[in-house]
Amino acid sequence: MAVETAAYSEQTEIQRDITEMVRQFADEQIIPNAEHYDHEDSFPEPIVEQMKELGLFGVTIPERYGGMGLDLTTYAMIVEELSRGWISISGVVNTHFIGSYLLMKFGTEEQKDHFLPKMATGEIRAAFSLSEPEVGSDVQGIKSSAKKGEDGRWELNGQKMWVTNGLGSGVVFVLMKTDPQADPPYKGMTCFITEKEPWAETNTGEYEGLVVPPKIKKMGYKGVESTELVYDGYRCPPERILGGEEAGVGQGFVQMMDALEVGRVNVAARGVGIGQRALELALRYSQERKAFGKPIAQHQAIQFKLADMATKIEAARLLTRKAARMKDAGERSDLEAGMAKLLASETGKECVEECFRIHGGYGYSKEYEIERLYRDAPLLLIGEGTSEIQRMVIGKKLLQRHKI
Ligand SMILES: Cc1cc2nc3c(=O)[nH]c(=O)nc-3n(C[C@H](O)[C@H](O)[C@H](O)COP(=O)(O)OP(=O)(O)OC[C@H]3O[C@@H](n4cnc5c(N)ncnc54)[C@H](O)[C@@H]3O)c2cc1C
């Protein structure tokens, strides 16, 4: 007797519609313009303005705050499409998404009411800051600190590094040491919601004490700025401690690590997106370019490359969506998010390199899109935790789950 089965569908109707909309946006607005902004290393303002109109800054923010109220899985699908266009565009929304996640999960009602409506429209954009000049992977080693003053406000001092959207953002979620004696150190860390003037190198008035040095020059991931942030006597009111002063002091590390879990799904989706674009470019070029009397796609060695690329991308996509779905279901997904980030970022880089090889000498020319992808892809191996750090997370979790 035949068993009745449901038609296979990887996406819901809403997910299909929104993914198609973003894919079209990437094809029409991002891909044709990416080369220009990459070359100039300038902020893609017109593209970002259109993203605001499409509501892409509020995808995961609840409808009552003016967002779309969609889940992480749908967000990951959107990020894949944006990254297929250009990963710098997903970089503009990534830290913003992490900031909104922090507010939705840990923020007080006042903090949500104050920030989320403006963040849903993109009127203010958010940055997320853990790293420092001497500290990246080992977050517990941060030195920047905050001390409560007699007037009840907290004074922030220290230097932060590699802040994506560091200049254009209007709010930075920043991790500071608030108890230098804490043992272990992570228990003495707090997340401050620091407001600033977007695009101001030197903040004045109520935001005085926050300076943004010139943007860091990078090999790729251009267009979206990465900066240092210098907090020098910046005064933060206690109601801008994430979750409120009473509940939030000492919780910053745990809050930020929770947010990194969704951030990792996000970077994984970017790996899938850039890998997908590399595959598309390779499929096209290999059918156009001829060698030894036939299109190179007819040589089996090239077909094997295409086959491996497509297979790995699909595996990375499925793992990324699994991690997102687990998080949406309220389950702990640090193991899966770590696996997804590791596999998808490495896959993205591998596929870009294979596409580059398939392009032969032309892959080295700036006239071909693959040259930009080749400079962009390595970032994914580093941001939100390097591959080595993902392996540490995965290994630790495996041993916890299978303790004998
Ligand atoms: C373009 C860009 C944008 C970024 N944006 C942001 C941002 O918005 N906010 C933010 O806070 N940070 C950001 N970062 C920083 C990023 O998160 C860090 O660069 C990353 O976490 C690695 O830290 P690190 O560079 O200090 O390397 P390190 O921690 O110094 O590591 C150096 C090497 O040692 C390895 N290593 C370290 N510890 C171990 C270990 N225990 N075992 C084995 N190997 C180890 C690492 O894997 C790496 O290969 C950004 C970085 C870049 C490049």
Taking the alpha carbons of the first and last residues, their distance comes to: 44 Å
Percent helix among the residues?
40-55%
Provide the spatial order of strands within the biggest beta sheet. 2-3-7-6
Number of strands: 9
Bound compounds, each kind once, are: flavin-adenine dinucleotide
Overall SS class = alpha+beta
Overall pLDDT level = 96
Describe the structure.
With 404 residues, the chain is of the alpha+beta class. It contains eleven helices and nine strands. The strands form three sheets. A four-stranded antiparallel beta sheet has the order 2-3-7-6, covered by helices on one side. A three-stranded mixed beta sheet has the order 1-4-5. A hairpin with a 2-residue loop joins β8 and β9.
Keywords:
alpha+beta; binds flavin-adenine dinucleotide; 404 residues; 3-stranded mixed sheet
Short account of what is shown:
The protein is α+β, with helices and mostly antiparallel strands.
